[in-house]
Amino acid sequence: MESYLKENFEVEPKNPTEEALKKWRSAVWLVKNPRRRFRMVADLAKRAAAEKKRRKIQEKIRIALYVQKAALQFIDAANRTERKLSEEVVQAGYDIEPEDLAYIVRSHNTKTYDFHGGLQGLARKIKVSLRDGVLSSDISKRQQIFGYNQFVEKPQRPLWMFIWDALQDMTLIILMVCAVISVGVGIATEGWPKGMYDGLGIILCILLVVVVTAVSDYKQSLQFKDLDKEKKNIIIQVTRDGTRKKVSIYDLVVGDIVHLSIGDQVPADGIFIDGYSLTIDESSLSGESEPVNIDKKKPFLLSGTKVQDGSGKMLVTSVGMKTEWGRLMVTLSEGGDDETPLQVKLNGVATIIGKIGLAFAVLTFLVLTARLILTKYISNELLKWSMNDGLALLNYFAIAVTILVVAVPEGLPLAVTLSLAFAMKKLMNDRALVRHLSACETMGSATCICTDKTGTLTTNHMVVTRLWVAGDTKEIKSKEKLKSSISEKVLTVLLQAVFLNTNSEIVKDDTGKTNIIGSPTETALLEFGLLFQNNYNQETKNVKIVKVEPFNSVKKKMSVLVALSNGKLRAFCKGASEIILNMCDKIINEDGEIVQMSDKQRKAITDVINGFACEALRTICLAFKDLETGSTSDNQDSSSNDIPESNYTVIAVVGIKDPVRPGVKEAVKTCLDAGIMVRMVTGDNINTAKAIAKECGILTADGLAIEGPEFREKSDEQLKDIVPRIQVMARSLPLDKHKLVTFLRNELKEVVAVTGDGTNDAPALHEADIGLAMGIAGTEVAKENADVVIMDDNFKTIVVVARWGRSVYINIQKFVQFQLTVNVVALMTNFVSACTSGSAPLTAVQLLWVNMIMDTLGALALATEPPHDGLMKRPPIGRDVNFITKVMWRNIIGQSIYQLIVLGILQFNGKRLLNLNGPDSTAVLNTMIFNTFVFCQVFNEINSRDMEKINVAKGMFDSWVFMIVMVCTVTFQVIIVELLGTFASTVPLSGSLWLASILMGAVSLPVGAILKYIPVESSAHHGHDGYEPLPRGPDLA
User: Fold this and answer.
1) I need a labelling partner for 269 at 20 to 30 A (CA). Which of 130, 182, 334, 449 fits?
2) Alpha-carbon distance values, 713 to 553, 716, 723, 730, 736 (Å)
3) With contact defined as beta carbons under 8 Å apart, do 787 and 778 qualify?
4) Euclidean distance between CA atoms 537 and 528, whole angstroms
5) Is the pLDDT of residue 634 over 70?
6) pLDDT digits over 178-218, tens only?
């Protein structure tokens, strides 16, 4: 079975090939209900059509951007007349039609833009202040006139459509036809109403199956809809009512002032207000990979594009479906998501079992028919056929079809969807947003997590605790004492370096409280600056910002060029201490004078940096340089002014404390116990990284800490030796992270999860088996390339995702074990009985009920079990292990043998053993067989909760879904036997027979316990099958 599955039903978790997707589709055979079975499977034809449509729209946009722009320059602006304003727009108080406003940006029409008065003119026409932004009281009016920032989505399918889908089951349709014929023939032969009971029973049972199935599918679809909406929700920074605040992308309106920085997605069409070195990647919209520089001459920004570099502010001019991105988004969701490896594998299992089931169904029908013909032949009635004989043949056919219903495990692939939907919803509550379904599964196989340090292992609440300035190291305790120990000259330049070289903003909220909006490092520095000077504007009011180079993870520094009040130019630079120190050749002394830096002073500063780092402090170096004015290279034209890269003067080194998050050490230990190696990959100083790694339990005595530049120089042969031992990589670039992930995956065959937050992390996130983007610190580009978004940026949440990943896999294995046992027993019982006695003990209605127990209800009970701590004491699930393990086969075969023995004894010797006499003894016996069979499945469901442990009841009462399913199954079984006998071909049982049925079912529990003592051979594949105890030292963490 496994070789067949690997050959035909194997797909990659990420970016599977079109060939692999087509291959398994062609291998699937005997699908009872394609509409339901493939509801969560990508529609390749629809996807291809959507891709074609998307390319057409992209080509149209590209022509509009690159061809139309040139043509529009020849249109005389004087010939343009303003469109007459509609009454609705006039009443709202605006002076431009929404369509005209949207057209300006969409077409990049500078003539029309100038005709409307440029940026200031448009701001006047849409009644917005470029300084204070939109008034909150105007939001609803603007949404009414200019529209909502939402895209047209397919409406949620109503419940009746899921009922209709469930009714498309080929076998159920055949059974319904049989039932209708049975009603007609029955009434003709047995009269009204007795003749209709058998057929009506089948119809009612089919309707029950359909409704339960449809409700389950409908609830799943609602969960996926909510998650899909959450995936598209982006938090935007805007200026409203004069203050800067965060709003959802769905709440954005025309007139909003939006703040953009590296990695952001442009949330709507708009006009550039101001900014520095703003570069936009328009490839998602136009297909063109060349980045576009945005400035006041080229001010048009399009929704859906990404900020590649720089920062800026924009005025929103059109939202939602009035943007080109809105039209493009409609095509992006067409065709659905790729199916997961488990879904594909279980389609293969369903196909194999379906073939076996079909063979048994045909054999059962042939045996029953042959016995009927043989009986007629023996009694010389071969040519005499009555309505009763026709009814018997119809009944045989119904039994054969019902065997097919039970035999084809349609619920197997759908159980994966159910389990994933449940896991995704729970993970959302645990602050993890799963963007791709397959990530949930793959995370259960993760053998390595490459994690960032800042914000993931640490709290990201940074505070400056140490300061080196003018040759002296100081503790940040008393503000007055600190202020008195620094000379006025030094303090002035230090505060300029803090307040001028920043991309954060100090704002006051509605209550007048001061807030800092920006990265945690920037916030810590500004809070430090505010200790000395409450009036932030004092440093900035007489200074003009000439040029800004925002921080990026490659250069590891941020620079700014400013024109001071005296007309001189001054450059400020801050960033990774050793990098900034290498750019400096001078130092500011305690009197505020600039002197040449000696080798001794350089060594002293390096020692200070290392000293701070060894205390687990993040070190930032601040420097400045005065430029000559009037020179060709240093004039005040921002377009030609380059910020210098050398000959700076060191001002200060600050040590920033970023404490380790509570619970991280325990989470790291949990990973180590679970066979998951944790590696820290950070841009920080190696000493800081090592100190934090030791505190977290990541860096052990035999582990290796390495710097990015050293790692880059290693050959592949050297990497094979050192990569398994690397636990910390410091001063790394995003390319180093990408190289490490690629090497771990391709050379060492590891299943790698990697965290990332910056735009440059996108390649590593995309390359990894599981990309984990940070929800708070992460850019939109990082999130878009990730499989899971960690909403609280916490390492503990990553471990929760790993637990759920393992839980999904194990839960599906439990369900498969349970369902295969029911399949084997139901098939063999009916087949053997048909061959020996000429009748099937389980009727069509009873088999439909059994099908519902093992399909929809079984999936609900076992596929939604929450994870337990034991899951993280096992090794990861290997890449190439058999899905149906030897442990599972042992349990399936053992339970099947027990159940077949019990049912066989009842079938052939039941009347004598149970002392059944009288005319209804056969009906009582058949009811007893049915009842015992159902209770065997109920107790086997409990047995399936743990495939290895003897105590299967542990945590059972914590799983409320499991308990509800158990109670419902038993209750409905009592109703079927005691009250619905007319339809289900059952008769009420005495108390002693009920007790006997329950006890025979309950014996499954000790049988299961005995089976678990039978040793099975461990998996010989690479990795392991997930069941051996993990050989790990308790103190490794």
Assistant:
1) 334
2) 19, 10, 13, 15, 11
3) no
4) 15
5) no
6) 777 777 766 776 667 766 766 777 788 778 878 887 887 88
Query: Is residue 727 a part of any domain in this protein?
Result: yes
With a CB cutoff of 8 Å and minimum separation 6, the contacts of 116 are: 96, 104, 122, 125
Q: For residue 256, what is the domain's CATH number?
A: 2.70.150.10
Domain membership of residue 640 (yes or no) is no
* Co-location of 813 and 782 in the same domain: no
Q: Which of 80, 101, 134 is the last residue of a domain?
A: 80
pLDDT at 692: 92
Separation CA 520–CA 1020 (nearest Å) = 49
Q: Given the structure tokens 């379904």, which residue do they identify?
A: 437
Domain membership flag for residue 639: no
Query: What's the rounded Cα separation, in Å, for the pair 355 and 409?
Result: 11
Alpha helices in 279-386 (DSSP H): 283-286, 324-332, 341-378
Do both 875 and 834 map to the same domain? Answer: yes
Which 3 state secondary structure label does DSSP give 377?
A: helix
User: Can you tell me the distance from the alpha carbon of 673 to that of 676, in angstroms, rounded to the nearest whole number?
Assistant: 7
How far CA 482 is from CA of 294, 467, 532, 612, in Å, comes to 43, 10, 9, 18
623 and 587 in one domain?
yes
Give residue 840's domain range. Answer: 342-413+803-1013
Residue pair 854/937 in contact by the 8 Å Cβ criterion: yes
Answer positive or negative: Cα dihedral of 815, 818, 819, 820. positive
**Does 580 map to a domain?**
yes
Distance CA 1004, CA 770 (A): 40
**Alpha-carbon span 795 to 662, nearest angstrom:** 10
Pairing outcome for strands 514-517 and 726-730: unpaired
Q: Bridge partners of 576?
A: 620
CB 886 within 8 A of CB 1015: no
Query: CA 68 to CA 858: how far, in whole Å?
Result: 60
Q: Inform me whether the pLDDT recorded for 637 exceeds 60.
A: no
- What global pTM score does this model have? 0.81
- Please tell me the total count of domains within the chain: 6
Query: Which of the residue ranges 226-230, 821-825, 982-986 would you say has the lowest mean pLDDT?
Result: 226-230
Give me the pLDDT at residue 838, please.
66
Residues 864 and 906 in one domain: yes
- Going by C-alpha positions, the residue among 978, 1004, 1009, 981 that lies closest to residue 993 is 978
Catalytic residue selected from 309, 452, 673, 793:
452
The residue with greater pLDDT, 702 or 854, is 702
684 is catalytic: no
435: CB partners within 8 A, 6+ apart:
231, 783, 786, 787, 788, 789
